[in-house]
Amino acid sequence: MAIELADVSRAAYLARIGVSEAEAARYVDDLSHILDMADQLASVDTNGIEPLAHPLDALQPLRRDEVTETNHRDDFQACAPAVADGLFLVPRVVE
């Protein structure tokens, strides 16, 4: 796909980005290279290749699921102006 100066100028206008003519010309080249690379990648035959969730074939070590801290809720709620059943009570903000 070929990118032209008008395409870059229109995209800059729609994005409300100020781009000079020199910058737009440079972006035309950069975007053309990027799209050429995407076309090159799209032309690779990937039939029979399973998609990967991760590029490395490694196991992810997970931490043990155990409690490491004690419950401090009562200490934290001791200075609250209003508490009920372990919940902070706040003024209603939605009518």
UniProtKB/TrEMBL annotation:
<dbReference type="GO" id="GO:0070681">
    <property type="term" value="P:glutaminyl-tRNAGln biosynthesis via transamidation"/>
</dbReference>
<keyword id="KW-0436">Ligase</keyword>
<dbReference type="InterPro" id="IPR003837">
    <property type="entry name" value="GatC"/>
</dbReference>
<comment type="function">
    <text>Allows the formation of correctly charged Asn-tRNA(Asn) or Gln-tRNA(Gln) through the transamidation of misacylated Asp-tRNA(Asn) or Glu-tRNA(Gln) in organisms which lack either or both of asparaginyl-tRNA or glutaminyl-tRNA synthetases. The reaction takes place in the presence of glutamine and ATP through an activated phospho-Asp-tRNA(Asn) or phospho-Glu-tRNA(Gln).</text>
</comment>
<dbReference type="GO" id="GO:0050567">
    <property type="term" value="F:glutaminyl-tRNA synthase (glutamine-hydrolyzing) activity"/>
</dbReference>
<protein>
    <recommendedName>
        <fullName>Aspartyl/glutamyl-tRNA(Asn/Gln) amidotransferase subunit C</fullName>
        <ecNumber>6.3.5.-</ecNumber>
    </recommendedName>
</protein>
<dbReference type="GO" id="GO:0005524">
    <property type="term" value="F:ATP binding"/>
</dbReference>
<comment type="subunit">
    <text>Heterotrimer of A, B and C subunits.</text>
</comment>
<dbReference type="GO" id="GO:0006412">
    <property type="term" value="P:translation"/>
</dbReference>
<dbReference type="GO" id="GO:0016740">
    <property type="term" value="F:transferase activity"/>
</dbReference>
<comment type="similarity">
    <text>Belongs to the GatC family.</text>
</comment>
<dbReference type="GO" id="GO:0006450">
    <property type="term" value="P:regulation of translational fidelity"/>
</dbReference>
<dbReference type="Pfam" id="PF02686">
    <property type="entry name" value="GatC"/>
</dbReference>
<keyword id="KW-0067">ATP-binding</keyword>
<dbReference type="InterPro" id="IPR036113">
    <property type="entry name" value="Asp/Glu-ADT_sf_sub_c"/>
</dbReference>
<keyword id="KW-0808">Transferase</keyword>
<dbReference type="GO" id="GO:0050566">
    <property type="term" value="F:asparaginyl-tRNA synthase (glutamine-hydrolyzing) activity"/>
</dbReference>
<keyword id="KW-0648">Protein biosynthesis</keyword>
<keyword id="KW-0547">Nucleotide-binding</keyword>
